[in-house]
Amino acid sequence: MGARVLYTVEPCGRGLPAPKPATPGSSGVDLMAALEAPITLNPGDRALIPAGFSVSIPVGYEWQIRPRSGLALRHGVTVLNSPGTVDSDYRGPVGVILVNLGTEPFTIHRGDRIAQAVLVRVESQELVPVDSLSGTERGTGGFGHTGV
Predict the structure, then answer these.
(1) 3-class DSSP state for residue 11?
(2) String of b and e for 138-148 (b: at least 16 CB within 10 Å)?
(3) By three-state DSSP, how is residue 72 classified?
(4) Which residues fall within 8 angstroms of residue 77, CB to CB, at 6 or more apart?
(5) 84/67 Cα distance (integer angstroms)
(6) pTM metric for this prediction
(7) Domains in the chain, ordered, with CATH?
(8) Each residue of 33-74: pLDDT tens digit?
């Protein structure tokens, strides 16, 4: 048995199926659009789409909101801040920031599967100031430094 994520249904989510994995081997749960009316994203547009519920993530975990590969491949629609994060101390409604990076308008309807939420263990961290850092072969090489 995995960690338990508690949820409450928001008014906009009433009547939608409960969030659940699509298959027994799915890593996450599908998030559906809890819209009152369809929204069309033109190329370059972005919108916050409500998922219709609030959650309580266990301490030591986060929900990573990830794109659906089919939407990304077929329509160029993806999660803008991918992966989005729902922290363990957040109790508000879950929403997904979708962006249309495709070339055609894309309409989102109530109940459409728009993203997936994967429960991921996270470690707490402490940042410690020091005078210098240890060296590595890579050093300060950043974006594109390998030429690939």
Answers:
(1) helix
(2) eeeeeeeeeee
(3) helix
(4) 41, 67, 71, 98, 99, 100, 101, 102, 106
(5) 9
(6) 0.89
(7) 6-121 (2.70.40.10)
(8) 999 999 999 999 999 999 999 999 999 999 999 999 999 999
